[in-house]
Amino acid sequence: MITQIKGLHHVTSMAADARTNNDFFTKALGLRRVKKTVNFDAPDVYHLYYGDEVGTPGSVMTYFPFPHMARGRPGTGEVGTTLFSVPEGSLGYWQERLAGLKIDGLKADEAFGEKRLHFAGPDGDGFALVEVKDDDRAPWTHGGIDADHAIRGFHSVSMRLRDEGATKELLTFMGYQAVESKDGVTRLIVPGGNAAHTIDLETLPSINRAALGAGSVHHVAFAVENRERQLEVRKALMDTGYQVTPVIDRDYFWAIYFRTPGGVLFEIATNEPGFDRDEDTAHLGEALKLPTQHEHLRAVLDKHLQPLEETVQA
Prior knowledge:
CATH architecture: Roll
Structural class: alpha+beta
Largest sheet: 8 strands, mixed
Oligomer: single chain
Strand content: 25-35%
Distance between the termini: 61 Å
CATH topology: 2,3-Dihydroxybiphenyl 1,2-Dioxygenase, domain 1
CATH class: Alpha Beta
Shape: globular
Number of strands: 16
C-alpha cells in the first residue's frame, strides 16, 4: 500500500473565458490568484491558479480558460463536485452573498453529518461549501471576505462513477480508507493527511459518460511531500500495472499522471518547490510568468492573452 499521499494537492478545470473565471474566484469566492501563467502544451491559453496566500497544497483550484470553449456534458467518469471548507456557522453568509451575486444552482443540504451549500461556477462547474468545525488553515482575507467566513481550502472532491469498485480499490491502495457509505456515496479519507483528505465516490450506473468541456474538471492532483516520495509512488503504481507518465516539471511542482479505471485522470504532485519560486509572496499572481521554453513568445502572448482586469480609460 502507498503511504506517501497526504490528500489533495490541486484540482484543474476548464473554462470558456479567462476574465469571467478570474472574477468569479477572486471576487465572488474571495480567493487569491497565486499564479498567472500559461498552459505548457498550448501557450496561447492561460493557466490560472487560485488559493490561499501562498497556494498551499490542498487549497489550489486551477483553470485552463480556452476562449469560447463549449460546455462539458456532465456524466460519469469525472469529478462532479469540488467542495471547499468554510467555518462552522458561515453558510448563511455564503447563501446571502452568492444569491446577491446571482450565482446559479444554490442548494443547501447535508451529507455525512456536514452542512453544505451547492452552487454553480460560470460554466456550470459543480461546487459546494462545507461547514467544518476545526479547520485551522489560515484563509486569504484580502479578497473581501473576513476570516470568520473565508474559504480555508479544499474539503474534498466527489467523483461520479458507473461502478465504484475499481476506483475504490485504487484509492485504498493509495492510502485512503473507506469510512462510511450512504445513499450510493462512499466516503474515503487519508488518515493523518492534510486538511483536504477526503474523497467521495458517487455510483450512478445508468448515467452516460461525461464529455470534457468548459466547466469540467480536467484532472485531480494528490499531494506528496517531495520528488523522492513521488518516485516511490510512481514505482508502486507501475508495479501494480498502471501506465504512469514520466515525471514532468510544472515549474511550481513536479507531476506524474495516470488514468483511473473509472475514467478520472489522476495526478501526483509534489509540495515543492511552491508558487514563490519565481515571485515574492507579496506579489504572487500579478505578473505573467512563462515556462522557460515559452519565454520567447512573451511579446506575442502579452498582446494575445485577454487582460484579466478591466483597463481604466484615461
